[in-house]
Write a structure and sequence with these properties.
Layout (H helix, E strand, L loop, with lengths): L2 E4 L6 H7 L4 E3 L17 E4 L12 H9 L3 E5 L2 H9 L5 E3 L1 H7 L26 H13 L5 H12 L8 H10 L3 H13 L6 H15 L21 H10 L6 H11 L3 H11 L3 H4 L4 H10 L1 H6 L6 H7 L9 H7 L5 H20 L10 H12 L4 H10 L5 H24 L8
Parallel strand pairs: 1-2, 1-3, 3-4, 4-5
Helix pairs in contact: 3-4, 5-6, 7-8, 11-18, 11-21, 16-20, 18-21, 19-21
Length: about 425
């Protein structure tokens, strides 16, 4: 079992390593991190800090995916506490006072834990998060420096301040403006003596690390039944994220896209895949894909299943997204891939990258949908828009636009192969 910790400004790395030298430390969590193959069943992941604003934040379904893979997820102090308050009924474990405050509704916005910091150097925060100020106000009230009502007014004023501006100097100025100079002096004195005096985020992070150290196997969690659990959370977006971040082979998507576009026999591969896919929509019945067709398209469509000439009517209407992180599904889609195909994918991807590196003003987005449509029509030997749309479905593309997205990384290599064929230096691409 390994303990993975996603932490940044809430708790400095030397402090984590001092008490937990065996932990696997990661930068603040971002979208896609929990799909990593480094996290295995039986591991523990402690989520403390995370990125947002200029980077995509951690999604809830990424956490649910990790939980389903038997990874124990603890959340504390920052975005971890926020996500735990939202997902504790579904198996995530919340730790610490910040988690309690979110769970109990004291705070409901992510600005309460937000810390502005540089993303290019040491992640030291430049502002004081609101949850730490809340801890300070509670401590001041217990010490008789503030009344409870005065503390609520002061916190409300601090809450209206944009979070990167909540520096120590600004906090003292606002406290004085609110007539709470005694608190300002008290707070300044404590922070001068110990900068972490009211650092609730750090305290909660350390508490979560200590708990993670004690876990030698995933705890048994019995979620409370809620309406959230009635619906299947594994949406198409979740599959797209898995396809992007989870496959072991970074070329898995282009390898399958190459087969979809250039393999003449891929429509047969796709038809076989539909019958054996692990898509929950198809697997919900003992009859799998045929039952799905009957249920969603009706008895007339069910008769098309046995007629090769009519199958395209079904594939035009039903086009599930494969789960490329599922080795079984990937094998089904690549079952006729040759060594030559793999070599060509590598070569064409290399050519594309070289072209973009040597022409920095260009991008694949400059290859228009119309250009892609003309290339696909040539590759598939179709002549009308209707035939092109039908062929997209037969090859597992829900739309021409999706087929264009899959083609773009290969367009430069494909056109280069045509040029080589015309000059007699190589064979034309398979298609």
């Amino acid at each position: 079992m390994a303990v993975h910790v996603f932490v940044g400004p809430s708790c400095p790395e030397p402090l984590v390593r001092k008490y937990h030298p065996d932990f696997v430390l990661h930068a603040p969590v971002r979208h896609g991190d929990l799909f990593s193959q480094a996290l295995a069943a039986g591991d523990v992941a402690v989520i403390v800090d995370g990125v947002y604003h200029h980077s995509l934040a951690l999604r809830h379904k990424e956490i649910l995916d990790a939980l389903e893979r038997r990874i124990t997820i603890l959340g504390a102090a920052s975005i971890g506490a926020l996500r735990a308050a939202e997902l504790d009924e579904l198996g995530m474990i919340g730790v610490g006072r910040v988690y309690d405050w979110y769970r109990d509704g004291v705070f409901d916005g992510d600005d309460a834990v937000s810390v502005a910091h540089s993303e290019t150097s040491s992640p030291v925060g430049i502002n004081i998060p609101l949850v730490n100020l809340h801890a300070a106000v509670l401590a001041a009230a217990d010490a008789g420096v503030l009344t409870r009502e005065a503390g609520r007014r002061l916190l409300a004023r601090l809450e209206r301040e944009y979070y990167p501006l909540r520096t120590v100097g600004r906090i003292l100025a606002l406290a004085n403006e609110c007539g709470e100079s005694a608190f300002a002096d008290w707070y300044a004195g404590h922070v001068a003596t110990d900068p972490a005096a009211f650092d609730q985020k750090r305290a909660d992070a350390l508490q979560a690390f200590a708990l993670a150290e004690l876990l030698d196997s995933p705890p048994r969690v019995t979620p409370v039944p809620t309406m959230k659990m009635v619906r299947d959370w594994r949406t198409e977006f979740h599959r797209r994220w898995r396809n992007r971040f989870a496959p072991v082979d970074p070329l898995m998507q282009p390898r399958i896209a190459y087969q979809q576009i250039f393999a003449a026999d891929f429509p047969d591969v796709w038809w076989g895949f539909l019958h054996r896919s692990s898509d929950p929509a198809f697997a919900s019945s003992s009859d799998g894909f045929p039952a799905h067709v009957l249920r969603h398209l009706g008895p007339t469509a069910a008769r098309w299943l046995d007629d090769p000439a009519l199958r395209s009517r079904i594939t035009t209407l039903l086009c599930p997204l494969p789960d490329l992180a599922d080795s079984r599904e990937a094998e089904l889609l690549l079952r006729r891939e040759s060594a030559q195909d793999r070599a060509r994918v590598t070569d064409w991807m290399r050519r594309t990258q070289h072209h973009l590196d040597t022409h920095p003003a260009r991008s694949l987005a400059q290859i228009t949908d119309a250009t892609c449509a003309r290339l696909l029509a040539r590759i598939w030997d179709v002549h009308t828009d209707k035939e092109l749309a039908v062929e997209c479905g037969r090859r597992g593309f829900p739309s021409l636009r999706q087929a264009a997205v899959a083609l773009r990384p290969f367009a430069i290599g494909y056109l280069g192969s045509l040029q080589q064929a015309r000059t007699g230096r190589g064979g034309e691409a398979r298609g």
